[in-house]
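[audit] Reproducing an earlier prediction to check determinism. Same input, same settings, fresh worker. If the C-alpha cells differ from the archived copy the diff job will pick it up downstream; this log only records the rerun itself.
[audit] input (272 residues):
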Amino acid sequence: MIKIKTLEEIELMRESALIVSKTLGMLASEVKPGVTTLQLDSMAETFIRDHGGVPGFLGLYDFPNSLCMSPNAQVVHGIPNDTPLVEGDIISIDCGVLKNGFYGDHAYTFEVGEVNAETKKLLQVTKESLYVGIREFKVGNRVGDVGYAIQQYTESHGYGVVRELVGHGLGREMHEDPEMPNYGKRGRGKKFVEGMVVAIEPMINLGTRRIKQLKDGWTILTADNKPSAHFEHDVAIIDGKPEILSTFAYIYEALGIESDEEAEFRQKALVL
C-alpha cells in the first residue's frame, strides 16, 4: 500500500535526504587510491551522527555497516572491508539516514583517480538515465513509464539493466510501496499521485544484465565481472511534478564539477 506524504512530511524527508547528500559530499574528497572502504564507512557514521541523524543501513535487515560500498563489478550491497581502493577503480557508495522518523537514501558512483574511457561513459550514461527516469515520475504516469525510460536510454548504449534489484517507495520505512524497476512497459504498474516519495536508482552493467551473489549473503556482482554503475535520488511529487529531495551538489562542490542537471527538478534553488 502506497503511503502518501504531506508537504510537512516531505520537508522532513528532505532534511534526512540532505544529510545523506552532505555525507556523500564529505566522502567525495576522501575517495582516492589507498583508502579502505571500512575507513570511509567509519567517517560516514561519525558524520551522520554529528549532523543529528542515525545511519539508516546499520543493522537494517542485519546489515553490518553504515554504507553499502560496491566497487567495480559489485552492483550493490557491498560490505566495507580493509581492501584499499586503487587507481582506476569505481565505487558505488549507497547511504541511508534516519532523522525525525523518516529515511533519506541515495547513492553515487565515484571514480578513483583516472578511470578508463569505457567505464567513464558507463557512469555518465547511468547518471543521465536517472534524470530520464525522474522526468517520468509525475501525476498520471505509472511505474512502467519510469522503468521504460531508463531501460530504453541505457540499452540504446548497449548496457545491461539489472532486473532483480529495484528502486522503492521511501518514508517512515526504508522500503515502501511501490517497487520501482529500471525496466518496464509504458502505462503499466501503479499510478503516480500527489505526495508520493520514491527512491529511483538505475543499476546498470557494462556487459550482461545478469548478476550473482557472494556467500556473504549481501554483495551482488555482475555475472561477467564487468563494471556496474549505480546512481540514486529521492524524489517527491509536488504540484504534480517531480521534486528531488536529495542532491549531488555537495559532491560536485568537493570535486570542482559544475552542473545544472538538477535545476529542472527544484521549485526553489538549493542553498549550499
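[audit] rerun output stored. Observation attached for the diff report: The chain has five helices and 15 strands.
[audit] end
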